Amino acid sequence: MAKEVRVGLVGCGTVGTGVARILLTEADLIEKKAGVRPVLVKVATRDWSKPRPFTVPERLRTTDWREVVESAEVVVELVGGTGVAAEVVKAALRAGKPVVTANKHLLAEHGRELAALAKEAGTVLLFEGAVGGGIPLVKVLKESLVSNEVEEILGILNGTTNFILTKMEEENLPFEEALRQAQEKGYAEADPTFDVEGVDAAHKIAILANLAFGGFVDFSRVFVEGIRGVELLDLRLGRELGYKLKLLAVAKRRPDGKVEVRVHPTFVPLSNPLSTVDGVYNGVLFKSNYLGRLKLQGAGAGAMPTATAVVQDVVQAAKWLAECGRAADLTPLGWDDGELEVADDFYTRYYLRLAVEDKPGVLYQIAKILAEEDISIAGVLQQEWILKFLPDRSEVVPLIILTHKAYESQIKRAISRIERLPFVRSAPVLIRVEEERF
Ligand SMILES: NC(=O)c1ccc[n+]([C@@H]2O[C@H](COP(=O)([O-])OP(=O)(O)OC[C@H]3O[C@@H](n4cnc5c(N)ncnc54)[C@H](OP(=O)(O)O)[C@@H]3O)[C@@H](O)[C@H]2O)c1
């Protein structure tokens, strides 16, 4: 008979209930496939009277997370946030017990401290469910690409914002209406700030950058811009130009050794495979020196996909305990080493939409400013077809400029000069353009 390993679960909400369900119903399958049997021995949540889609047997229930930490050999934290969750994770690590979590917020902001604690205690912190829900992104970075230098990661890492942008594009809905539909379907929280403002995707790309580049990313240095300001007009114009708008999370290693870690609405060429990742799905492209490009796509959130990833880690920790008597991760990849140097500025292409008076000389003066800031123009559009997207044929017309690659600081300087020109009628719209085509 396979060795049994005691597993405790703190947090029995969306994902926690899914984990309890898999561990309690699939133990035989896991034992057959993995040669070890994780046994759920205790589950803590605040209020057991709340209805849950899976009933946890009475004998396993508690409201005190400390009981879970005491009774288990592997501790699963699925509370979320940085309060109680941090207490649970620290207590378990200090007791030398492997911890499995899906808490990207905690990892992105306190991962370095927690990884150091795990190392000191001779145990592990596993977090496959924290990034990309059920998509095995952490496993790919830690295992499949162990022999490769990762050069770049492009990801659609937040299903809520991807759903909103897809709705806006496919049904011509304004942002607020698309958000309302996301909330109605349960894809967006009542308070959608973390998703909509790009913070959730930023937490995830910071974690992936840590793993990919072998160092720690100071989360406060990650550039974050959400989708609240996205206008339908730009989605439509982008489509005409051969792009789709996505909230893209980017992590790139630059030739100067610095890393760019950023999240912002981005025009992605229709020939890039991420352009077809729609709705609540997540998708990620890895670029590495020997493997080249690798795309992974799947359910980036949700109870059972995320629970699948969490259980993968539980089984891994259980196998280590069964085989060696302790859990030891030989490839922490950057979690407890030095700090990565995050670039202040980044280098990309831009789409600039200006509302200008329709008169001669306008383009000349704008082009002059861009040239003075050393920004090269890739294309200018002020054609009849743009007018069909406007509610009325006013005196003010949109002028679209696509640039070649430039530093963000250059384009910001140019914009601050352009918006002071007397014929520019409203604040320019700036959208970054990803040029990676396949
Ligand atoms: N939902 C997803 O699709 C998804 C995807 C990827 C990662 N994650 C991550 O997974 C984690 C859990 O997310 P979730 O969506 O499952 O959250 P959730 O539905 O809000 O569940 C959180 C659970 O924690 C429990 N809890 C709160 N304080 C507690 C305490 N002091 N002691 C014991 N239990 C306590 C709550 O108990 P009560 O129910 O009794 O109030 C609730 O059951 C988060 O870090 C989240 O970022 C979620």
Q: Give the names of the bound compounds.
A: NADP nicotinamide-adenine-dinucleotide phosphate
Task: Label the structural class.
Answer: alpha/beta
**What does the radius of gyration come to?**
24 Å
- CATH first level of the largest domain: which class? Alpha Beta
Rounded to the nearest angstrom, the distance between the terminal CA atoms is 50 Å
Count of alpha and pi helical runs:
15
What is the CATH third-level topology name of the largest domain?
A: Dihydrodipicolinate Reductase, domain 2
- The best one-word shape is elongated
Average pLDDT over all residues? 93
Spans where pLDDT lies below 50 across 5 or more residues = none
Report on the structure:
- The chain has 438 residues and is of the alpha/beta class.
- It has 3 domains: 3-134 and 302-324, 3-Layer(aba) Sandwich (Rossmann fold); 137-298, Dihydrodipicolinate Reductase, domain 2; 347-433, Alpha-Beta Plaits, CATH 3.30.70.
- Helices cover 37% and strands 24% of the residues.
- It is built from 15 helices and 17 strands.
- The chain has helices spanning 14-25, 27-34, 65-71, 84-94, 104-121, 137-144, 159-171, 175-184, 193-196, 199-213, 232-240, 303-324, 362-372, 384-387, 408-418; strands at residues 3-10, 36-44, 61-62, 74-77, 99-101, 125-126, 150-156, 223-224, 243-253, 259-269, 281-288, 292-299, 347-357, 377-381, 396-403, 406-407, 429-433.
- The strands form 2 sheets. Strands 7, 8, 9, 10, 11, 12, 13, 14, 15, 16 and 17 form an 11-stranded mixed sheet that branches.
- Helix 13 (362-372) runs antiparallel to helix 15 (408-418).
- The longest helix has 22 residues, at 303-324.
- The model has no long low-confidence stretch (mean pLDDT 93).
